[in-house]
Amino acid sequence: MYSISRRSFIYQSVLAAAGFSLLGCGGGDSTPTDTTATTDTMATDEITTAVPYLDTLGIQLWTVREQMAADPRATLKALADLGYQQVELMDTRDITRLKPICDEYGLAVNSSFIQWTAITGRWDLLPDAPRITVEEILEQANAGGLSHLIFGYMLPEEHKTADDWKRHIESANNAAAKAQAAGLNMAYHNHNFEWEPVDGTTGWELLKEHMDGSLVPFELDLGWAAMAGQDPAQVLESVSDRVSLLHIKNLVDLPQPYVTIESMPADKFTELGAGKLDIPALMRQGQEAGVTYCFYEQDNNWKPDALGSAERSIEFLEG
Fold it and tell me: Is 127 exposed, middle or buried (0-12, 13-18, 19+ CB in 10 A)?
């Protein structure tokens, strides 16, 4: 692993090569990180054994979506140089384009989100989106050597009633059965809208009741659960027999629960070591539950940009 000063040098050099300003991408604080006082002798290259998953630590590429849009090669190299071991793709249709670059820089690609509309069937809500079937997704995943596929989002119009939830859960169960037959795993990734009241219950309760945990375990996003006013440790415990992946995400104190994505203030996201959640303790709890992989994700409020936040977060875990 790289020392802090070495990381900072690599990080700034890669951004410069890609044409990024340290202040140019992201929505966070515009004050650059001052690394001039750091020397190699002030940091250690050892990986602590106190925090699990460091040897396979991943990052969801949504975190660095602006950098990926500008220069995917430079961004992936930067992530590898910072010490991330794998990336989680935003869409299986990115495999052909990105997998060779990831292989070049030693980044594993085990997991990818899928186009959720292949599960919900609500293509009428995305009339301009290229259509894709579950079968095509499975072909892409197997061709790219993936192990996990993530059903990770729905539009607000897709989960207005309990019957909507039940219909999509049944579709997810059926798709996951096909995935399992093809040697693949499917998981459900939560946001915060799962805790929005609907017909006297919540999407979360319907997921736990109707989703087949042996076919569709959770990729539990700890931060989004906390945003909905939940205790992420308690949520993790409640699905400890059916959770396979974690999204490790931190946030600052919230004045109230937010149960819709549209209501969530962007400035409440923060780096892993800067928020209110005890991320190492939650990772250890995930290890006890048998979680396979952990992925860092930060949706907004990067400092000074998404790569800077990615650097701070991995340094926190290693420190």
Answer: exposed
C-alpha neighbours within 13 Å on the C-beta side of residue 159: 28
Q: Length of the chain, please? A: 319
Integer CA distances (angstroms), 300 to 16, 80, 259, in order: 22, 21, 17
Can you give the three-state secondary structure of 23-59, one letter per residue?
Answer: CCCCCCCCCCCCCCCCCHHHCCCCCCCCCCCCCCCEE
Tokens for 112, please give them: 């990818």
Strand pairing of 58-60 and 293-296?
parallel
Query: Alpha carbon 285 to chain centroid distance?
Result: 18
For residue 319, give both structure tokens: 């420190």
Distances (CA, A) of 155 to 113, 116, 129, 193, 218: 15, 9, 14, 10, 19
Question: In this structure, what token pair is assigned to residue 281?
Answer: 């303790």
Overall CATH class of domain 4-318? alpha beta
Residue 49 confidence class, pLDDT cut points 50, 70, 90: low
DSSP 122: -
Which DSSP category does 123 fall into?
G
Q: Which residues have CB under 8 Å from 133's CB, separation 6+?
A: 118
Residue 76 has which token pair? 């992936």
At 211 the three-state DSSP class reads coil
Q: Alpha carbon 242 to chain centroid distance? A: 18
- Residue 48, burial from CB neighbour count under 10 angstroms (0-12, 13-18, 19+): exposed
Q: What's the pLDDT tens digit per position in 181-240?
A: 999 999 999 999 999 999 999 999 999 999 999 999 999 999 999 999 999 999 999 999
Where are the extended beta strands (E) located within 122-242?
148-151, 185-189, 197-198, 201-202, 218-221
Identify the bridge partners of residue 218 per DSSP, sorted by sequence position: 188, 243
CA distance 126 to 86: 30
List all residues 6 or more positions away from 36 whose beta carbon is below 8 Å from its beta carbon.
Answer: none
